[in-house]
Amino acid sequence: MDFILFIIIPIILGLWAQGKVSGTYGKYSQVGSRSGITGREAAEYMLRRFGISDVSIKPIKGMLSDHYNPTTKELALSEKNYYGKSQAALGVAAHEAGHAIQHAVGYKALNFRMALVPITSFASQLLPFVLIGGFIFQITGLIQLGIFVYLILTLFQLVTLPVEFDASKRAKVELVNLGILQNDEMVGVNKTLDAAALTYVAAFVASLGNLLYLLMISRD
């Protein structure tokens, strides 16, 4: 029962969230904006509004592979969002620009998340040992290692939540303030970004579930 509650249910939630964002994005990537502004232009306008001139914007391959790299100050948009003029494309592009703005203004949650990246990367490299030795064979030492790994990963996912929510909030406000979209065009943006937020919530729940499960079997 514990395995179902802490492992299986979070996996189902994650799959549902991924399906939700894919479906929502697919729908609103077909709904154009009246302004005819591309995702790249929307991101540029947002950065310019905040006086940010040292962030490069580039197209990349992949579906929803969009991200902002604070180390290199590169804002990467998937080609569909870089060149696209849909409500979904503008929402995603503005969201990533929101991360660049967070970086520029010193948003504390983003700074904390960046500080966690090295130890989180190290913890992620230990996952294969944890999954095989801890979950499958329940080797005591690897269970303890798994608790450490998932404690780090859960903290990282927890800190990620306000960072992502804030970036979406900035995107929604600036798209209207800059006149890129009118209020009645924000439906697609809101639904796309809200669906994307569910994936981060699901990732946190999954990581927390793994942590709690390991804590429980460590006491058996």
What is the first-to-last residue Cα distance? 15 Å
Report helical residue fraction.
over 70%
Low-confidence stretches: none
Q: H/E element string?
A: HHEEEHHHHHH
* Spatial sequence of strands, sheet with the most strands: 1-3-2
Gross geometry: elongated
Count of domain modules: 1
Q: Could you give the count of β-strands?
A: 3
Largest sheet: 3 strands, mixed
What is the beta-strand fraction?
5-15%
CA-based gyration radius? 19 Å
Number of helices: 8
Structural class: mainly alpha
* Whole-number mean pLDDT: 94
Topology, element by element:
Blueprint: H1 2-28, H2 39-49, E1 56-60, E2 67-69, E3 74-78, H3 79-82, H4 87-105, H5 108-125, H6 127-136, H7 140-177, H8 186-218
Helix pairs in contact: 1-8, 2-4, 4-7, 4-8, 5-7, 6-7, 7-8
Relevant terms:
6% strand; 8 helices; mainly alpha; three-stranded mixed sheet
In summary, what is this structure?
The chain is mainly alpha-helical and 220 residues long. Helix content is 73%, strand content 6%.
